[in-house]
Amino acid sequence: MSDRKKKERLVFRNTILLFMTAIIWGTSFVAQSAGMEYIGPFTFSVIRYVLGGTVLIPVIIFLRRKQEKPADIMLSIKYGIGCGIILCSASNFQQMAMLKASAGKAGFITALYIILVPILGIFMRKRTSPVIWLSVILAVIGLYFLCIGRSGNYSFEMSDLQLLICSLLFSFHIVYVDNANSKGVDGVVMSSAQFFTAAVISAFFVVPVDVCVYDMIPRVALVKAALPALCYSGFMACGVAYTLQIVGQNEVNPTVASLIMSLESVVSAISGFLILHQKLTVDELVGCFVMFAAIMLAEMPAGAKASRRRKRRIAEKELKERLE
Length: 324
Fold this sequence. Notes:
The protein is mostly helical. Helix content is 79%, strand content 0%. The protein has helices at residues 3-27, 29-35, 41-55, 57-66, 73-97, 103-110, 113-123, 130-147, 158-182, 187-203, 206-211, 220-225, 227-248, 254-261, 264-274, 282-323. Helix 1 packs antiparallel against helix 13, helix 3 crosses helix 13 (227-248) and helix 7 (113-123) packs across helix 9. The chain is globular. It starts with a helix and ends with a helix.
């Protein structure tokens, strides 16, 4: 198999992994909200990140034993620490905002990283095609319909500022992961390292923020009550989804990756309809359709390019057979 064909297969596989990431993040929103009813945002973060980092340790041991030339573990941990600092900051701003912000606002403002990622790419001299920019604009329109709608019920609050900071930080996280993948890191090692880093940093803010600011003292009984939500958020949203993100972003355009992962808002709405029997309004259905259209549009250039390559290979093969 040629290197070009291997790369095409890798991009296709990783695109699927990013879709899986969006699905897990979208379905974990309910668990995240439920857990916050019992414990503070930083307490929630500490426990879920410890769970997420711990569950990956046996996976790391197994995979590295199977690999002939495993990636540099120290380099992976180094990038994991940097990734963990960004992740900790982004997720905790989101956690604090969710104590007051509505689900619609949280989903819309957080997913604005789909605009910020290509903007950051300009400063990093990464070219973004006009088709991708059009996809970004369509995705933002879709998000607006999905999360806010034509009623326009919107008023700026402190929680919105926290979500804007969260969105900016998540865009840095996506770009940072893309840079780390270019260095050849071990994605699972890096993911585990980022969770433990985020857990340690979050622990320093439990008393000053959770206890002193929000008056949410962590107690054993309350942690037990939040345990189902913590387990899903820790094992699935962290251990599985963030690892899929790191692995899935390899060889995938960061802007396209951010568009795919922003489907978590769509998945959240659909899962609420299927699981919680919540009704989907016309605006939400329009938002889902427009966002799906944006993702498909973003994938079209890659698909068209792959199709042209296949046609060219077939033509070259036929020409070779004729000459022989």
